[in-house]
Amino acid sequence: MTTRTTLAALSWPLRTERLSLRPATVDDTGATWHFRRRADVSNWITRAPATLEEHRSWFEAPDTLARTLLIEHGGTVVGDVMVKIEDAWAQAEIAERARGAQAELGWVLDPDHAGRGYATEAVRELLRLCFEDLGLHRVTATCFAANEASWRLMERVGMRREFHTVRDSLHRSGEWLDCLGYALLADEWKRAGHS
């Protein structure tokens, strides 16, 4: 069985040139609600609670807190990121070796802080965390095809587009939308000159 480091076992916060990333706590509920409730944000994310109480119920759940990191700039929360560690597919005889081998990533940046490269800087650090600190084999991310800012970010950090689905995802507007899926392998990340 492969033993991998967990998010909880890492030393926090992580620091980049301008940002700091740390695990979310219940005290961060209001700060994340501030930007997640905005229509220009909630249009693209999986969950858009209508009230602070609904947001609190989701955000403060142990599973959410366990996979959510806050992005801070100068002590101000400017966004959050998700690192959802998952098992990779494997044949039954070797399934143990695929446990916790990959992660799905997600991100939300407060639009008041957009256009400064914070999301790119945070996601690059997230990739470093996944491959160096957690020892993962692969990371993935998906978005609605119409969310150009998100898929351009995936390409900017070196992720490779793996699929484009056609109207497979039902948006809360009632429309069926296309989705894009991206991935990056640890060896691709290293070949790009990281680590």
TrEMBL record:
Keywords: Transferase
Molecular-function GO terms, alphabetical: acyltransferase activity, transferring groups other than amino-acyl groups
Record lineage: Bacteria, Bacillati, Actinomycetota, Actinomycetes, Micromonosporales
Pfam families: Acetyltransf_3
Keyword Zinc carried by entry: no
Entries under Gene3D superfamilies matching the protein: 3.40.630.30
Identification of the protein by name: RimJ/RimL family protein N-acetyltransferase
Gene source species: Actinoplanes xinjiangensis
Domain N-acetyltransferase: 19-187
UniProt cross-references to PANTHER family, sorted A to Z: GNAT FAMILY, PUTATIVE (AFU_ORTHOLOGUE AFUA_3G00765)-RELATED-RELATED (PTHR43792)
Database matches in InterPro entries: Acyl_CoA_acyltransferase (IPR016181), GNAT_dom (IPR000182), N-acetyltransferase (IPR051531)
